[in-house]
Amino acid sequence: MITVYNKNFSIPQICGSGQCFRLDRTEDGFYEVMAYDRYLKMEVKPEKTLLYCSEEEYEGFWKGYFDLDTDYGAYLSRIDREDAYLRKAADFGSGIRILRQDVWEMIITFILSQQNNIPRIKGLIQILGERYGEKRETPDGKFYHTFPDAESLARATEEELRALKLGYRSRYICGTAKMAASGEVDLAGLSRMEYPEAREELMKFPGVGGKVADCICLFALHQLDAFPVDTHIKKVVDSQYGGRFPFSRYKGCAGIMQQYIFYYDLKGEADK
Per the database record, which ranges form the HhH-GPD domain (predicted)? Predict the structure, then answer.
């Protein structure tokens, strides 16, 4: 078991930030996450979070996955003192970190996210795993499914995916899986590209426009200049920044600011 102190690290906030759809609170009050082919159980306490894994697994995978080597206090200190809105948003969501997620999973996840809500996205991902992923057992004797790889989804027909209630996204997923499985778009190569090049490459996939590509760049490729704009972000940028977010000030961390804004607009407004 590994102890991580909760300074600028909050599993509940990360869970609610819209970047990860296989991280959930369980009925018994723990949290669990499936990432790549791995499973992790976590217990959140007031001052610390307990990760139920070995030190070797933590150092080799989970530490990097949660971006725990990065000082998010340095990002928080860059916020303009005159920007009352962003300071409030960052204070509200200061435990959010940008996860280092699997690029293939994020491509399919954010294709599914279009015109969809978070509970339904999670349900569709679970269905895809059960149908096309591999069944695994946790140390507690629970079962979960890995996210299906490109080759597995490439063998699925559009009709099969529509039967799983994926709707019009079925065509996009079939086309995207075939392109990835054939190497027409090199998934491994994306991590070696700069943000603009990776964004352009991702948009070769059917169903991947600029906003979806930005989500993939931020949440999988860790391109922190990516700044996905959905209805929440557009509303805030229009109302607080006159339609122009100050990207030059936040070069290298604009995507982190986006997460603070998104989470605050989604969760914080209800608390006012």
Answer: 112-266
Catalytic annotation, residues = 211
Between CA 199 and CA 182 the distance in angstroms is 20
Please write the tens of the pLDDT for every residue from 67-97: 999 999 999 999 999 999 999 999 999 999 9
Coil/strand/helix, residue 247: coil
Distance separating alpha carbons of residues 227 and 43, to the nearest angstrom: 31
Using CB atoms within 10 A of its CB, is residue 11 exposed (0-12), middle (13-18) or buried (19+)?
buried
Quote the radius of gyration of the chain (alpha carbons, Å).
19
**Which pTM was predicted?**
0.90
Structural domains of the chain, with CATH: 2-92 (3.30.310.260), 103-219 (1.10.340.30)
Interatomic CA distance for residues 33 and 100, integer angstroms: 13
